[in-house]
Amino acid sequence: MNASNFPAPSIPPSALLDFISNQPSVKVDFPSILDVKNARFTTSGRASIALALEHADITTGDEVLIPAYHCEAMVAPARWLGATTVFYRINPDTSIQLEDIDAKITSKTRAIIVTHYFGFEQQLQAIRALCTKHAIVLIEDCAHALFGLSSGQPIGTTGDYAVASCMKFLPIYEGGLICSTTRDISNIRLAPPSLMFQIKSAINCLETSVFYNRLGVLGRVINAFFKFKDKLWAYLKSLQPDRQGVGLGPSSSEGGFGLDEAWIHKTMSIFSDRIIRNTELSYVAERRRQNYRTLNTSLSALPDCHPLFSTLPEHTVPWVFPLYVKNPEKYFLTLKMQGVPVWRFGEFLDSAVTKDVCPVSVEYSKHIFQFPCHQSLTAGEIDWMLNKISQIFSE
Ligand SMILES: *Cc1c(COP(=O)(O)O)cnc(C)c1O
């Protein structure tokens, strides 16, 4: 389950396939990037960024502005196209720093990526105007924001392109999205993945769900099936040797940050596509918001830390719960070793990002811990997590 030396998290770190999210729920309209017309499904958020930059003809010598608070998956696509990456500052509330962006625009600047961190929307009017003025392509990075409103506009509709990472919100093995409200992206060439991968995507999704005891009786049946999975897998491989070397899966689906060239021009699997189309999105949104509030109440009371965002705006649907921790090294490994799902966005910043480039990003890459608040967590699992965190922080 886990590529590192840490134990697998004791509770699910991300959404799982179950029967609940398919049930009807109280209808609340949360604008979602999934509703943007002509959106195209891809294998990951980073593939979508690569496709957006490629579609905008970004090439060698062009400059792409990227927030200093980032993960490698946001940088790799620009470098793949030979572009130069330039990092701009963010403010302590994670809003983009316009003066710094303005100062870093040159005659070579062709594109800028703006991220709605943790699901909390950026205000985009000013950067939209700046991009229009300088003919810079605005890429709205909605990897943390499958839902939301930005300055009254549905998330993903202000940028020239918007990208999302569906697998960060929904129980699918792989999946990203690219859309544009102003450009025709129907000419982006996307091929379906191999049959092997179609199968892998479904198996992986079910396997993760069963690992955390979801899916009831069906889960037990599937579990029995998995006992034979490795044999089946070897057999399928012998039937269809994978000549392109893309039979396994993109590293984006296994927690890696790199960009796999072979997975850029691919659609998501049929299985992932079906899951997305059958998900009750308002349930997902409501549950994430409820869980966020529960975490907020409990974690606000802890010593030596505070929530990065202590209020949840009306249309915001959080990806995770970000907590600012004063002494990160005192707690991070302990939490991980005890099975608490905890990560740090931007833990590994590009070496170009120093304190001089952006003090906030350097600080947040160590001090912001993120805990899950996804729709599949049970009340018992949330209690377990909050008790663990509170124990560890009181030691
Ligand atoms: C995860 C992430 C991406 C890339 O998404 P993947 O689906 O993992 O490729 C892009 N931007 C941000 C802010 C991210 O956190």
From TrEMBL:
Keywords: Aminotransferase, Pyridoxal phosphate, Transferase
Gene3D superfamilies associated with the record: Aspartate Aminotransferase, domain 1, Type I PLP-dependent aspartate aminotransferase-like (Major domain)
GO molecular-function terms, A-Z: transaminase activity
Domain of life: Bacteria
Pfam families reported in the protein's UniProt record: DegT_DnrJ_EryC1 (PF01041)
Recorded family membership: Belongs to the DegT/DnrJ/EryC1 family.
Protein name in the entry: Aminotransferase class V-fold PLP-dependent enzyme
